[in-house]
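yo, Proteasome 20S subunit beta 12 is done. seq:
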Amino acid sequence: MEKRSVDSRVRGVSTGTTILAATFDGGVVIGSDSRASIGGEYVSSKTINKVVQVHDQIFCCMAGSLADAQAVTKAAKFHLSFHSVQMETPPLVIAAASVLQELCYNNKEELQAGFITAGWDRKKGPQVGAGRGDSHTGSRDTAVQSNSTYWRVAAVLIPCVPPQVYVVPLGGMLVGQPVTIGGSGSTYIYGYVDAKYKPNMSREECLQFATNALALAMGRDNVSGGVAHLVVITETGVEHVVVPGNKLPKFHNE
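structure:
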């Protein structure tokens, strides 16, 4: 994730992050790294929390321009809070994903930010969604190059699994999948996600899967790093897990 810079030599905004979310039996895990950079060259912060709570049991991950992403999540929080008051019930996860998608789409000429939305609701249980204001969507993964902005969304296709991930493309369509990854670090972990994600994993298995995926991406992507921020969302509540950099699993000599 990047902060905006007034330096004229920095052109465009790259995604510079690793974000992911995956469902398990009874819940969902959403997580990210914690590094913020300027222009993909200067690390401006090692402690950014990119996992943002937009409602009681709904969270989103941010990628792209930090300023844009924070502005969109702030607006989404307001919309969802107002919606819950009007309806006298907590919003659905698909409603939160739709709010983020609408905000991004209506401002697609000005925004350079992408999101993964995940949570639990009374209607469909655990769900995950991914979206970006200025992207296209392919059948399996998406790569976008726009104004020096690079964004990838990978959705693992697993047959006979109820759709649980909402991918939001430019036209406003919602596509369901059980797991998604995004940001520059995601390019390093396609194979791992394809090979290791399983439907109906236990909470511990899914948490380890997410931790391993983030560790692999952070070990190879120079603009992903810091600590791993993870949130486990179930019917009973929300649990925050922070894995320090020196406690992350290692898969090669670092």
